[in-house]
Request: fold
Amino acid sequence: MFAEKLGVNQSTLRNYKTAFSKAGVFFSKENGKTAYTEQHFEMFQTMLKLYEQGQGTIVECVQAVLKNVQSVQADEGQLQDVLKQLEQQGQQLEQHEKQIEAMKKYIDTKLEERDRQLIEVVRDTQEIKAAQQKRSFWQRLKWFFLGK
Reply:
């Protein structure tokens, strides 16, 4: 069935499989038969295209395909590294946001406390002025001249 999908006969498929196996590609078996994956199909197809274009022998085309696969795997590895870095940066960003929130709460609390103290001072000052204004004329004179 896989040979039909590729458009080759069984013995040709076995030769291609041998070339890939010698290059380090492993094929699993199920019920005594080789189990091919979609990735295998794409590799065989790419190898056949290169061979039909005159890019070299079957073995050379297999090696070219595997170089591309390794290059893609290396790129995937780099992408994984970048993703890990992005995740770490995201975690750091979350921590910074939490710190900023804590600072905002601290600042708001301190501002409210300062405002309360300021209002108390203003009220005390007003009460003192009001008390001074309630003194009689003679008390104010006495305070003015005697400081009592």
Q: What stands out?
A: The chain has a mean pLDDT of 83. The CA atoms of residues 63 and 103 lie 59 Å apart. The first strand starts at residue 28 and ends at 30. Helices lie at 2-6, 10-22, 38-52, 58-133, 137-146.
